Amino acid sequence: MTAVDVRPDAGPTRGHRDNSRRKAILTMVGRRVLFIVPVIAVVSAGLFAAAAISPFDPLVGYLGTRYMTTSDADKALIADQMGFDNPWYSTYWNWLQGVFTGDLGISRSFNQPVSQVIFERLPWTLLLVGISLLIAIFASLTLGVLAGIRSGGFLDKTVSGLSVVVQGLPPFVLSLGAIALFALTLGWLPVAGLTDGGADPTPAQVIRHLVLPVTVLAISQMPWLLLAVRESVVGSKSEGFVAGAVARGIPTPTITKRHILPTSLAPFVNIVGVRLPELIVGAVLVEEVFSWPGIAGAIVSSARDLDMALLAFLTVGTTLTVMLGSLLADVLVAVLDPRVSTDG
């Protein structure tokens, strides 16, 4: 019988494997970051090209109610002064130069610098989305693990059934239902806005007005996350290492914490990354229904008025957020599960 070589240098050491894994992840990150540049260029240029053939007239948004009373000569003069008749590629180039020099331009919709619009509205959106996402993640992990551990039981059937129902309801429907029940019928919470009419934005006022939109946005994002955890846990229960742990008499909470939950985290993180665009769309709808003073109102107004300075920045910013969020999710999945390929 041939002796087996068990010397330390007989195969790759754990440290060597870890270094190789880190290099592979860094290579993936570099490749994906380089890919972001042409995508942003195509998205931004495509936006200006699409605006040029849009049936919406930016002059209508600029003049508002004055459009019907303004003479054709004055309309032509204003359009020329504002550059509405310039070729799209010329407008795009001017916008691109401004971005690289730090001048984001003036928003016609709000009659403010784009940077000021973003500065005033972005924190409220981050507050809404951040709290909603944290609640959705924590609740989905907890309920998904419990439902998966007790698959086929009452909790599993109830949670899975509710998830399927919520999946079919758009966020604005959930928003209107929440307003009808908790604001108009029961009177427990305010209908919309950041504060009560005329009140200062104190923490108590903001928190009270934040409850409904945060809850609705969190619930709208939970079904896919929860069901992904539940399926992953059910699959992990049938693995050999779990059966071995059960045979050794290890308590169920310990098996769940040390064996089932870690193997369920990678698919869960991946789903969070995949659902980022849905989260952004949901935030836009929820903000509009609840009149929350975030970025959503700016997106709607800039799209309606073809306010390209603001619309282009928001579109590029949203695209960049989705791509970076997806990249972060992929990195976390690769770190959590060494079996995952980094070639994508």
UniProtKB/TrEMBL annotation:
InterPro entries, sorted: BPD_transp_1_N (IPR045621), MetI-like (IPR000515), MetI-like_sf (IPR035906)
Gene Ontology cellular component annotations, sorted alphabetically: plasma membrane
Record keywords: Cell membrane, Membrane, Transmembrane, Transmembrane helix, Transport
Listed transmembrane segments: 33-53, 124-149, 169-190, 210-229, 310-336
GO biological process: transmembrane transport
PANTHER family: ABC TRANSPORTER PERMEASE PROTEIN, DIPEPTIDE TRANSPORT SYSTEM PERMEASE PROTEIN DPPB-RELATED
Annotated protein name in UniProt: Putative ABC transporter permease protein
Organism for this UniProt entry: Rhodococcus erythropolis (strain PR4 / NBRC 100887)
